[in-house]
Amino acid sequence: MRIIGIDYGGARTGFAISDELGITAQGLETLDSNGSDKMILKKIDELLDKYNIDTIVVGMPYHMNGDISERAELTKKFIHKLKCKYNMLKIDYIDERLTTILANRTMHFLGVDRNKKKNIVDTISAVYILETYMNRNKGI
Known about the structure:
The chain is of the alpha/beta class. It has helices at 37-50, 70-85, 99-110, 114-138; strands at residues 2-7, 12-18, 25-32, 53-60, 90-95.
């Protein structure tokens, strides 16, 4: 069974997926959703058709001091939609603070062109979200 990691955003949403054994996470894509949850849910439907998925984990964007951000409130509503539509799957969330910073550092280290960063930062963030979730469940 696989796990999907989601970096849910207003304009773009990044997706990552685990391998069958739940050991590694790999980026899938960044969807330009322009605030449309319907587009994101359609993408999840496609992933469910393609992969054997049992869990969806979404990054929760808390403020650095742990307070709930406006974006976190929207993310909670999105997670509620997921739980309603995909009630046969485990739906979870994990603190995503600093994942975008880590993604930007990774791209800088790899020498990714500035113009391409916008298109992949959310995918890399989704990988970090998924890795954090998998490590937490392994007790790492």
